[in-house]
Amino acid sequence: MADELKKSQLHAIQYFFVDGTFEFSFGGLCLVLAIYFFVQEAAPESLLSVILNMGFIVVVLAGSLLINRLVQTIKERITYPRTGFVKYKREYGLKRTSRLAISLVSGALISALIVIALMKSPHVMDWMPGMTGLFFAAVIAWIGYRSALPRFYLVALAVFLISISLAISGLGDMLGLALVYGLTSLILFTSGGLTLWKYLHQNPVLQESPDEH
Question: What's the Cα-to-Cα distance from 23 to each of 16, 128, 171, 190, rounded to whole Å?
Fold first, then answer.
């Protein structure tokens, strides 16, 4: 019984990633950040740079909402008509509050550590592209472990190799961050595109038979 429950849970997790839209969503967010850091490097004193600096959180949140809306539209028009809709259970109450609190505290601690590191050594920014890529690689590898989908291990490996290359090259600061986010988005879009192509090939839309009466 326990094995059957685990299999059902795994199938539900895998269905979330079945059409490649997760990679489009994650890759889209990385692309937004890549554009942001590229503008900061290419034209740090421009009006656009000032606007992006002042509204960084707004830009990221707006970009995330737009990307998620596009992904949801893809699912509604492509995925659900082919293999159905799965409603995932939402967390409520103390459990949800605890997870949110842990996320907020973790984010605050990481931000504080970065600020302290920058105050003690400005050269820490030179390592940010490599550290960012390694963090993304670890997150994607964890997703691969949780979903038992080998493609995420390949994506994680590619992001890992990029982060190591950027760390060795010395392309730190804004340009390095723009590159790591841009290349990560390219890898994710490629993985998502191939996954979507395979999904469409394996799951054609069922044609309704005409009513003879």
Answer: 11, 23, 26, 8
Tokens of 144: 């691969």
Angle, helices 21-42/56-74, rounded to nearest 10 degrees: 150
Nearest to 56 by CA among 28, 32, 38: 32
Residue 170 — left, alpha, or beta (φ > 0 → left; ψ -120 to 50 → alpha)?
A: left
**In this predicted model, what pLDDT tens digit does every residue of 14-51 receive, in sequence order?**
888 899 999 998 898 889 888 888 887 777 666 666 66
Q: CA-CA distances (angstroms) from residue 202 to 16, 20, 82, 148?
A: 16, 14, 10, 20
> Helices in the chain by DSSP H: which ranges?
2-16, 21-42, 47-54, 56-74, 80-83, 93-120, 128-147, 150-169, 173-202
Q: What is the dihedral of CA 22, 27, 30, 32, to 10 degrees?
A: -100
Q: How far is CA 81 from its chain centroid?
A: 25
pLDDT tens track for 39-86: 877 776 666 666 666 666 776 777 778 877 888 888 888 888 888 776
Whose structure tokens read 């005409």?
A: 210
